[in-house]
Amino acid sequence: MTAISTARSRGSAADRPLRDRVRPTMPLPNFHDHPTLKLAVSGTFSSGKSTTSEALSVATGIPRTHAKTSRQLLVDLVPGKTVMELSAMELVKLGLRRFEERVHNESGAGPFISDGGVFHEWVYFEARMRVGINPGAAWWFQGIKKLMGLPVKHFYQRYTDTLGHVTRARAKRIYDAYVHLPVEFDMEPDGHRPVSEPFRRLSDDLLIAALEELEIPYRVVGGTVEQRVTTIIDLFGLPLAVPVPEAIEIAEQRVATDLDDLKADARYHEAQRKKSLLRQIQYAMRY
Fold first, then answer.
1. What is the pLDDT of residues 164-175, one digit of tens each?
2. pTM of the entire structure?
3. 3-state DSSP call for residue 212?
């Protein structure tokens, strides 16, 4: 049984997270010997990926690569909706756009620090196939979605499996190592992130399972942002261009500025507007 099938067949939610049941032992590359190091930082929603990877980039001087967030892309791709309101095909569109951005931004020779890694798009879709297309939505909304999905879910599962093969194969070719950030922070219920803890837990397990199956060197690094950045620098022998506390301050300002810029867009606020019951039912009727 593969690590991914193990993650898929986990029983009770009381089981320990997969990251606590495996012990990565593959040796990590050192920057001194691998000056074109391509390092990916993984973790599910609200695990601190953006702040950690940005602070790590500032501290080391190594460029950070990323795809635009769902919130940023949706104002153009699907105006007026949050991620929680998307249909399966709209989620496909969003995932492919993010995949396209990652491939483009990570096409250079390196070094770089990837915020997320290329198979995140597969993980989130696979988790939705299991937990529900719109995790965290009202029970009646999820019930309608499940019923409407009966004729087509098999197609979307086949698409998800294919996406998984493509993205995992690319990750194996591209990245020299991974750092996985465990779930340690509360999730921001902003309507764009799933507010379902089972979804977040399953996503975390799938990320670890993929790393185990692909045999990509990785380590799980937790703690405060400062502890995380300091540990990652030590693990990979990364250069230090800016003191870590200063790098974190700069990173937090940049992340906050990006969010402020998005919130200044009227289309973002339109998507956040509470929808009528009729509109919600219409969304639920479209798997």
1. 999 999 999 999
2. 0.85
3. helix
